[in-house]
Amino acid sequence: MLAPLLFVWPISIAFTHYFANSVASFPYDQSLREHVAALARQVSSVDGRPQLELLGMAQAFLRSDEIDNVYFHLLDGDGRLIAGDKELPVPKRVDALPKNENGEVHFRDDEYRGQTLRVAYLRLPAPDAAHQRWALIEVGETTEKRSQLANKIIASVILPQFVIIPLAVVLVWFGLSQGLRPLTRLRDRIHARREADLSPIALGRVPEELRPLTEAFNSMLARMQHNVDAQRRFIADAAHQMRTPLTGLKTQAQLAMRESDPAELRHALRQILIGVDRASHLVDQLLALAHAEASGHAQQALLELDLDQLLREIVETWVVRALDRHIDLGFESTGAVLIQGNAFLLREMINNLIDNALRYTPAGGRVTARVVAQGDFALLEVEDSGSGISDEESQKVFDRFYRGEGADGEGSGLGLAIVREIAELHLAAASLRPKSRSTDGDEQSGCVARIVFPIHRPQPLQPLLPNSVQTGFA
């Protein structure tokens, strides 16, 4: 606060000086005006020429000033001196002075012998209309009294500020120090915490003014604690899941080293290869999940794309694997469906849906992928004819590392967790439900994974032609 105060203070002094001079000049200008009016009453016309009849006592009264020098004179229309002081400067152009038809007194500033003069003058009307003669009365005085009064006014205003402003600065500093003391204590309490301490700040000793800020800070700490706990659980689960295939690989390798029969050795190596594939798949899933979470935190830009075309391209890449498993993989198209999305993440999501469906569908089964537009939403569905899922399990399958009942050892439990992360990034809702009953009442096996996206409707381009031209073409 001191910096702007030091900037404004000189401006305040300048304004004070200006207004002090204006105030100090007013009463002395009024006195000069009265002197001019008094002299004007003593002017008479003799043979068409103005004459000033001023007694010696009157002249002595006019000059009775203990501080300033007072001058006066009477000039004719040609600027010649009729009476008064020769020292008083004559205007450069007397005929250019305004005529005082209503007896109004005017003022001007002049200089004489290095002293500033304040001059009041009155141009009298011509007493002789035939000769158009007129007279000019001027009374001037030096400005010492005005300067003294202005200095007194300035001193009476400025000098108290030398006491008031430092006192105000001290009081403001003291008030701010006292007002910010609770914030300082809160800062010290936060600094004194251990790095891993994310517990909420106790509100008992927090001032009322800081309570909303503290509550918001506690809410942020709670979210951070939730994220940290989720990361810890993820790391623990990932370590456990990685330990299992690595232990199996180690066991198979130890058995292979003991075998001398080529057939048994080949079987052990085949098991090692299967274990490596499972571990590689698990690592890929973990990396995909980490990438999906990082993309959600970074808020990557979503671009317009055709979900139907994207699904078609992905399904084509899974045909060979479906044939190897003796599964009928189909695709149903209803035309272009536009959404806002990230093509890389959507590919990862659809791959996990199809992979999950193929894993839980037995040989001879069917898996169908489709995109359907319904109103303002686009439905991406992957339907299989597997063993199905219960309503209770359908609420848990999107949790990390959750494995449903009857699941084989190939899955990692991360596929649908990745699907949910990517769906939430696209403002979509993911669900897995059992198939609906058929028309004859028999319950069909299998389930349907569904992702509901908001449809993107592009805004039509506005024509660049003026309204008049558009109307003409229309």
Average pLDDT value? Answer: 78
Architecture of the largest domain, according to CATH?
2-Layer Sandwich
CATH topology of the largest domain: Heat Shock Protein 90
Distance between the termini: 65 Å
In the CATH scheme, the class of the largest domain would be: Alpha Beta
Rg computed from alpha carbons, rounded to a whole number of angstroms: 50 Å
Structural class: alpha+beta
Model regions low in confidence, pLDDT < 50 over at least 5 residues: 438-442, 468-474
Main sheet makeup: 5 strands, antiparallel
Number of helices: 10
Portion in beta strands:
15-25%
Overall tally of structural domains: 3
The share of residues in helices is 40-55%
Task: Report the principal-axis shape.
Answer: elongated
